[in-house]
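The authors assume throughout that readers already know how a fold can be written as discrete tokens. For illustration, here is how one protein appears when written out as sequence plus structure tokens:
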Amino acid sequence: MSVLIFRLNGVSEQEAQEVRDLLLDNQFDFYETSAGRWGFAVAGLWLKDDNLKLQAKALLDNYQHQREQYYAALRQEGESETLLDRLKASPLQVVTYTAIALFIVFLSLSPFVNLFVKE
């Protein structure tokens, strides 16, 4: 009987592909289901042989632990990009996006401002 070993809901495509590759490299026989058209079904990776569930879970737990350590190390390095860094790298893009955002705010608020100005 099949058993769910990894849910794909809310998982990046990169992580999902890494898990697929990990299962294939370790010769686990599995299949994948999607969330369906409206997202009500379970998107996940299913192991065809439930007798291998403990081995697959141990492999996935090890993978998740390594991934957690990798991202923790990235956070400690503090190499996140700031707005100033992005402005220096591509000023035209930052100015364009800021102008678009301000225009959207203007369009969103102008009907309400007009209500108060007319009175």
Summary: The longest strand covers residues 3-7. The chain has two domains: 3-77, 83-118.
